[in-house]
Amino acid sequence: MVRKLQQTEKLAAIGEMSAFVAHEIRNPLFAIGGFARALLSQETLNETDTKKVKIIFNESQRLEKILKIILNFARPAVGEGDEIDVNEVISEALGLLRMRFESQGGIVTTDLDSNLAKVHGNPDQLKQCIINGIKNGFEAMPDGGTLRVETKLSADNWVIIRIMDSGEGIPDDIIEHLFNPFFTTKAGGTGLGLAMTKKIIEDMGGKVKIRSKLKKGTVLAFYLPPVSLGPPVVEKHDEKTVMEKP
Ligand code: ADP
Ligand code: MG
Q1: Residue partners of 146: CB distance under 8 A and separation at least 6
Q2: Which numbered ligand comes closest to the C-alpha of 210?
Q3: Residue (of 147, 150, 133) closest to 102 by Cα position
Q4: Each residue of 6-51: pLDDT tens digit?
Q5: What is the mean pLDDT of the chain?
């Protein structure tokens, strides 16, 4: 519980800081990245210096990615109460991402329930959560594999979205850290995808589950209340209330 509170507070702090971050960090960061790129294109640099400048360039790129996610997340949620067609949002997200994975030999399959109930929320934010999940799936399968997206209504009335990959899986000892802001095992990772996703899904009255088996793959699942149950009652800083079944 203490850890959950810390996560929520960290994310709230990120939201509040974002306007400040945008102005104070963005321009200097672009300058650092830009000059590093300019230096790399010069032939006068020796090998050791090239290595150092490459690190400066790569790290500035990583920070730019973090900044982009934070700014997207902090953008005021327009149309918060929209009724969302989940399958449509999934198709849009997949449309943006699948070609690159398939061109490398990966397989993408879907099984979307055509009678699925709608859910309440901001479609752009839900799309971001689905994109995060799909990207994590692709990144877990650098040598190809199968990514599958399913939707269905559960017997106890949750709209369920499952994003499954046949990738490397997640070691037990890191499972509990996955939703911590900035936790990443990737060289160019931001560690913000799952933290932001959890916050958005829980604000929609839903919950996020992750199940994984080493070398077999991972299932990321979102459980969302259908619109027929009315808009979610979200009590800030009390995730237990949100997690309860409607
Ligand atoms: P990032 O992708 O930038 O590292 P995320 O918050 O999206 O940040 O994910 C955090 C970490 O969770 C990843 O670095 C990875 O270790 C692990 N992870 C998330 N999804 C998967 C997956 N589908 N398969 C294996 N590991 C995953
Ligand atoms: Mg990610």
Answers
A1: 106, 107, 108, 109, 164, 165, 166
A2: 1
A3: 147
A4: 666 666 666 666 656 666 788 899 999 999 999 999 888 899 999 9
A5: 85
Residue ID of nearest Cα to ligand 1 atom 13: 184
* One-character DSSP codes across 138-165: HHT-TT--EEEEEEEE-TTS-EEEEEEE
Give the pLDDT score at 203.
Answer: 87
Q: Is 197 in the pocket of ligand 1 (CB under 6 A)?
A: no
Gap from CA of 185 to ligand 1 centroid (Å): 7
| Per-position DSSP letters for 45-110, written without gaps between them | --HHHHHHHHHHHHHHHHHHHHHHHHHHHHS--TTTTEEE-HHHHHHHHHHHHHHHHHHTT-EEEE
**CA-based R_g, the chain, Å:** 20
Amino acid identity for residue 154 in this structure: S
Position 230 scores a pLDDT of 64
Rounded distance between C-alpha atoms, residue 216 and residue 214, angstroms: 5
- The CB of 144 under 6 Å from ligand 1? The reply is no
Q: Which amino acid is at 5?
A: L
Residues 97/202/78/193 CA torsion (nearest 10 deg): -40
In this structure, are strands 146-153 and 159-165 parallel, antiparallel, or unpaired? antiparallel
